[in-house]
Design brief:
- The complex is a heterodimer.
- Chain A is an alpha/beta fold.
- Chain A has a single domain, classed as Rossmann fold.
- Chain A is 47% helix and 8% strand.
- A six-stranded mixed β-sheet of chain A has the order 2-1-3-4-5-6.
- Chain B is globular, with a radius of gyration of 23 Å.
- By secondary structure, chain B is an all-alpha fold.
- The chains are: A alpha/beta, B mainly alpha.
- Chains A and B meet through helix 1, helix 6 and helix 7 of A and helix 9, helix 18 and helix 21 of B.
Chain lengths: 346, 484
């Protein structure tokens, strides 16, 4: 072998292997960037931050569940009941902020067949500065620019981790099981109390001004309302998840209660002006939120709660309207203000 | 643009190499040189246009001053050096002086440097060397175009090595006259594949250990602190030498060679030997342009030791504007002096002992280099020496498991009852052990190219390293020496 052969062989080998790897990624496509799963493959669990844009783009669906960890334990199949629709996708990202939701909403709203969007209206979305939370979905998976596709097709994690995971998960579970984490954790008052106790504020803070979060809430409304208007044919189901009583203890101790309730009031009032919005409020299910056996920390609940929320949204229970949303929030405020929190620690 | 990016590997590098060799065919050598200059300025300008302007002005001014230096005008040489160091101090050290002044005199001065041009420490030293060379020997003069190409040359402008015009300019001129040399291209492939692998497979993996460690010093204990310290020792070597390999690959593709910067420094048996093997171009600069003019070793032992200390204090300051680097330089200066004082005795010591002492010294001093401030460095040492033998931290395992091993961890978790703690620990220790052995016992890249014999086995190895390296580019990271 001479030096010329060595050089040419090294270059040829390298380019050939890279071409084969790119082909493998494009065909298997674990993040569904190029196409829906081929053959018998399904959109099973891989990496939610990487896969969600592709799921929204390439699957066929009439209902989309968009949310955070509060929504991950929903089964998409529940919403394929003929009431919501017949095909559903779940687009959930742990700790997601609106910048990520916008990526998914853009894609979902561009699908003409969509009839329902079920959106997890977490309190933290409304009480945090959205500018501090940039998009976490990789841009090379969220756009159609082929120039940044090398980040996907020649990506060590995709080749060595997510293609094997995608294939193994396809052999052992279904797309309906994707991103459900409730099976991996235990839920009990002891666990919830143990976790919350480590973060509980010992010395209560001064009560914040009622309007301290209004700018963030307005920013949220400014971001979401174009979607509501653009797709007036789509029903948007917003729901407020039932955080445990520890969440409200935390709220009171941080001096947040009035500010949060006033922020919710501001947002709900505006959302309910849209005819295609249905709003479900589960936070005032006092029996549930004080039954800590359903929780693993101050906010995360078990899958039975998700199923209850699904049933309520299906049947129109726990829905609030322009007429009663204010009283509902007032009731929540009174309960949280006067609850004997120490009883939750015995 | 950085070397470890898709745009560099797949677009910029092939275009520059192809363009240079095509333009070489034109009879006029100015054309390929102008092309190289444009490519270098484009490469540099992508980082920051203001920094590009600083570089261009610096090149023009230094070249004009060098014309005066050719006439043996010492004030011109002094003016050039003061001007270069002035810009360096203004851009890099104002904040440092501000901190010292404010803490000593309880003042509240606030300076603000407009920009910190990338690689200013490197190209400033290259230009000072050129002025000095022109002053010493007018025969070292080169044309303005040659000078501009030399200073701005993209493979070395940001992270070095600190090449000299006397060695690089003739090389470039020779390369323009020569045809494509497959021997050099083959060696370039070796440098590129080993360089990229050192950076993205080893250094970037080790950086996860280090970053976690310095972010969680209180949780380290002796065991974890030792692993973090060793990881940084290996990270900085593979990071910087990986860059130098990739820079040399570019030069070899263009048809010439670049000054060597590393020679397996962790094999050293003394501190003096370490500095002959580590960042050799910087050591050469300080030896030729600082140590010799100070008198070198010709003015007695005490003065020699003082000269060593001055050189190492300056070397520390050159690396960064903080007391950490100054202390790091001072300790190495003291190490060199001790090394010389003990030489008559230490040469009789077993090689293993000398190696271990040198390696331990270098490891410990890197702590000052890596820690953001002295308080953190001392907190790290406290953990290292008094933290006690604790199990490897579970968060360390989680943070530092190499991406290549994630699937194994997932399979273990999913299909077995084994603890991922132990499998993760085995993986991490394996990476560390491999990196350690590779840095000491394996041939370094320059040795590989020097003893290069084309073989299918080597072609396959280069392919494997290149492919794995390219697959790792999706997580872009900076080269450590870009900060200097």
């Amino acid at each position: 072998m001479n030096t010329r052969q060595f050089f040419l062989r090294t270059i040829t080998y390298t380019l050939s292997v890279l071409a084969l790897i790119a082909l493998l990624v494009i065909v298997i496509d674990p993040f569904l960037h190029y196409h829906a799963p081929i053959g018998k493959l399904q959109a099973v669990e891989t990496d939610e931050r990487s896969a969600m844009a592709g799921v929204a783009k390439h699957l066929t669906y009439d209902t989309a569940l968009i949310g955070s960890s509060m929504s991950e334990n929903f089964r998409a199949s529940w919403f394929e009941d003929g009431v919501f629709g017949t095909s559903c996708i779940k687009l959930c990202l742990q700790g997601a902020h609106f910048s990520d939701y916008a990526v998914m909403l853009d894609e979902v709203c561009s699908h003409q067949e969509v009839k329902n969007i079920v959106f997890s209206l977490d309190n933290y979305l409304l009480t945090n500065n959205p500018d501090r939370y940039p998009v976490t979905i990789p841009s090379y998976l969220a756009n159609n620019n082929v120039l940044d596709d090398p980040y996907y097709v020649w990506n060590k994690s995709v080749v060595l981790e997510y293609i094997p995971k995608f294939l193994i998960n396809n052999a052992t579970e279904t797309a309906d099981d994707a991103y459900i984490w409730a099976d991996d954790y235990q839920f009990s008052k002891y666990i919830a109390r143990g976790v919350y106790t480590t973060q509980r504020v010992l010395v209560p803070e001064e009560e914040k001004s009622y309007d301290v979060y209004f700018a963030y809430a307005d920013s949220f409304l400014h971001s979401i309302e174009p979607y509501l208007e653009e797709r007036s044919d789509v029903t948007f189901y917003f729901y407020a998840s039932p955080y445990s009583i520890y969440y409200w203890d935390d709220c009171v101790r941080h001096g947040n209660l009035t500010a949060e309730i006033c922020t919710l009031e501001r947002v709900y009032k505006q959302l309910l002006t849209h005819e295609n919005v249905r709003l479900f409020y589960f936070q005032d299910d006092f029996d549930l939120i004080t039954d800590l056996d359903h929780y693993r920390d101050y906010s995360h609940f078990d899958q039975s709660v998700n199923h209850m929320m699904y049933e309520c949204m299906r049947d129109g229970k726990k829905e609030v309207s322009q007429d009663d949303y204010y009283d509902t929030l007032l009731g929540m405020n009174d309960f949280a203000l006067h609850y004997d929190y120490e009883s939750a620690f015995h | 643009m950085v070397f470890n990016s898709y745009s560099y590997i797949f677009i910029f590098l092939p275009l520059v190499v192809a363009g240079f060799h095509l333009l070489k065919r034109a009879k006029n050598p100015l054309i390929p040189k102008c092309f190289l200059l444009c490519a270098s300025l484009f490469f540099y300008g992508l980082h920051n246009l203001k920094a590009l302007a600083v570089l261009c002005v610096s090149i023009v001014l230094n070249y004009l001053i060098s014309l005066l230096c050719l006439k043996k005008k010492k004030p011109a040489l002094i003016l050039g050096i003061v001007l270069d160091l002035g810009v360096l101090v203004y851009c890099k050290y104002l904040l440092f002086f501000e901190g010292i002044s404010n803490s000593l005199f309880h003042t509240t001065f606030t300076f603000s440097s407009l920009i910190l041009p990338l690689g200013i420490s490197f190209y400033t030293f290259s230009q000072i060397a050129y002025l000095s060379d022109c002053y010493k020997d007018p025969g070292n003069r080169c044309s303005f175009l040659d000078y501009a190409v030399f200073v701005s040359f993209f493979p070395k402008v940001t992270v070095g090595p600190i090449a000299l015009s006397t060695e690089m300019v003739p090389e470039i001129n020779r390369a323009i006259r020569k045809k494509i040399d497959f021997d050099k291209w083959s060696k370039a492939m070796i440098c590129l594949s080993f360089g990229i692998a050192k950076k993205v497979l080893l250094a970037d993996t080790l950086s996860k250990y280090v970053d976690w460690g310095y972010a969680n010093i209180d949780a380290l204990g002796t065991t974890n602190a030792f692993l973090v310290m060793l990881s940084y020792t290996l990270q900085i070597y593979f990071d910087f030498s990986g860059y130098c390999d990739m820079a040399r690959a570019v030069c070899l593709f263009l048809g010439f060679d670049l000054v060597r910067n590393f020679d397996s420094p962790y094999r050293s048996l003394s501190i003096a030997e370490f500095w002959k093997r580590w960042h050799m171009s910087l050591t050469r600069f300080f030896r030729v342009y600082v140590y010799f003019p100070l008198g070198g070793n010709r003015k007695g032992k005490v003065r020699t030791y003082i000269n060593h200390m001055i050189v190492f204090l300056l070397s520390g300051l050159w690396h960064g504007a903080s007391l950490n680097f100054l202390l790091w330089g001072a300790i190495h200066g003291a190490g060199i002096i001790c090394s010389k004082l003990l030489k008559p005795f230490s040469v009789k010591w077993p090689k293993t002992l000398r190696f271990l002492l040198t390696f331990a010294f270098v490891n410990l001093t890197w702590v000052y280099f890596r820690a953001p401030d002295l308080t953190t460095a001392h907190a790290f040492f406290k953990e290292l020496f008094t933290g006690g033998l604790v199990p490897i931290n579970i968060e360390f395992i989680a943070a530092a498991t190499p991406a290549e091993c994630n699937i194994l961890q997932w399979l273990v978790m999913r299909f077995t009852t084994l603890s991922t703690y132990y499998t993760g620990m085995v993986m991490i220790l394996s990476v560390l052990l491999f990196a350690l052995l590779a840095s000491i016992f394996m041939k370094n890249t320059d040795e590989r190219t020097d003893s290069f014999r084309p073989s299918p086995k080597l072609a396959a190895a280069c392919t494997a390293l290149l492919v794995m390296g390219i697959l790792s580019l999706s997580e872009i990271s900076k080269f450590i020496y870009v900060n200097f």
